[in-house]
Specification:
Layout lengths: L1 E5 L5 H11 L6 H5 L7 E8 H4 L4 E10 L2 E9 L8 H15 L4 E7 L3 H9 L3 E10 L4 E9 L1
Parallel strand pairs: 4-5
Antiparallel strand pairs: 1-2, 2-3, 3-4, 5-7, 6-7
Bound molecules: coenzyme A.
The site of coenzyme A has 20 residues, from strand 4, helix 4 and helix 5.
Length: 150
């Protein structure tokens, strides 16, 4: 079973570990800290039941609202916890949060080569909106923009 909790500062080192391994370029500790406890956003951590006793974090996601739109900033699952529904649970909860807050559209950017993430987003109804040329660094790559009407 997967349990979702709001991010807390003392759990940030684990989030940083997952982030550095999964996302390039990663955010700084300060940038992640800035997303904790915000009125206009969601910073969720996923604990798998087997790991929950130790507060071991399997994944996290960060979403921010602006007016009636939201942007999914980050979603990542620990390498050894993937393909067990953690990413889907996080994304589903983020979309539920958007519904509760009357968000009309959710947007995200994803590396063009990131098949796993693109499949996850499509499974939850996101559609391609366009491209941003050379949007990412380390390595340089186009972003695919995706959106979902809520
Ligand atoms: C993308 C990511 C968050 C998915 O997390 P996950 O916990 O493995 O995802 P789930 O097990 O919930 O899978 C949900 C769906 O996503 C898709 N998916 C996930 N991983 C996939 C893979 N490796 N290959 C193909 N499809 C995949 C499938 O559609 C899957 O549904 P299914 O199991 O019914 O086939 C994870 O691979 C990850 O952390 N990647 C690195 C970080 C990243 O790229 N984040 C996105 C940045 S925009």
């Amino acid at each position: 079973m997967i349990r979702l909790i709001d991010a807390r500062e003392e759990l940030l080192p684990q989030v940083l570990g997952i982030e550095r391994e999964a996302i390039s370029p990663p955010w700084s500790e300060g940038a992640l800290l800035n997303e904790i406890g915000r009125e206009d956003g969601l910073f969720l951590l996923a604990l798998e039941e087997s790991a929950a006793a130790d507060n071991d974090i399997a994944g996290f996601c960060i979403l921010r609202r602006a007016a009636d739109e939201a942007e999914l900033y980050q979603i990542a699952v620990r390498d050894d916890c993937r393909r067990r529904g953690v990413g889907g649970a996080l994304l589903g909860a983020a979309l539920e949060y958007c519904r509760l807050h009357r968000v009309v559209s959710v947007y995200l950017e994803v590396r063009r080569s990131n098949d796993a993430a693109i499949r996850l987003y499509k499974k939850y109804g996101f559609k391609n909106e366009g491209r941003r040329k050379n949007y990412y660094s380390s390595p340089v790559e186009d972003a695919v923009i995706m959106s979902l009407p809520i």
